Amino acid sequence: MEMRLAKRQVKDLAAIQEIVAQCKICRLAMEDQEGLYIVPMSPGAKWENEKLTLYFHCAGEGRKIAALRKDPRCAFEMDCGWRLTGEENAACSYSCDYQSVTGAGIVRFVEDPEEKMTALAAIMTHQSGKEFSFTEKMARSVTILALEAETYTAKAHRSE
User: How many angstroms from the chain centroid is the CA of residue 46?
Assistant: First the structure.
């Protein structure tokens, strides 16, 4: 589907990567027997050329885990740079600056300890800007999800 306001679409890969790097929350949307479900999570991102993988650390049980074990498809949304703009006394002049990335993909449960350590480091770097290392013992004790984005688009609105 073509973006309605094509002028807001961000196509430059480096710019998309920068938006992802700035977004500290990623909302995952999935469906289970109770219906649609969305949850905010703290991501870590890994890029291989144009391929985006988002990593998440979470509890090993609960509604999200049950839903993803049954159907690993999900959609995601990340946004940042929100700023209300407009003339103070002109309601219809208001708008909002923002940057966002939306997409869909397949979640897999990471079992390999090496990849878990890489994922944990990516999450912490993404969230804190600092480098951390993890032991295999630490990696074995956590649940890590990897969302391999099959599609994604980026969008930005900046008032001048």
Answer: 11
* Burial degree of 16 (CB within 10 A; 0-12, 13-18, 19+): buried
Domains, the chain, ordered by start: 6-157 (2.30.110.10)
In one letter, which amino acid is 7? K
How far is C-alpha 144 from the geometric centre of its chain's CA atoms?
Answer: 14
Can you give the pTM of this predicted structure?
0.89
**Residue whose C-alpha is closest to residue 143's, from 74, 45, 64, 33:** 64
CA max distance for the chain: 59
- How far apart CA 68 and CA 72 sit, in angstroms, is 4
Mean pLDDT calculated for residue range 124-153: 94
Distance from C-alpha of 40 to C-alpha of 28, rounded to nearest angstrom: 6
pLDDT tens for residues 32-43? Answer: 999 999 999 999
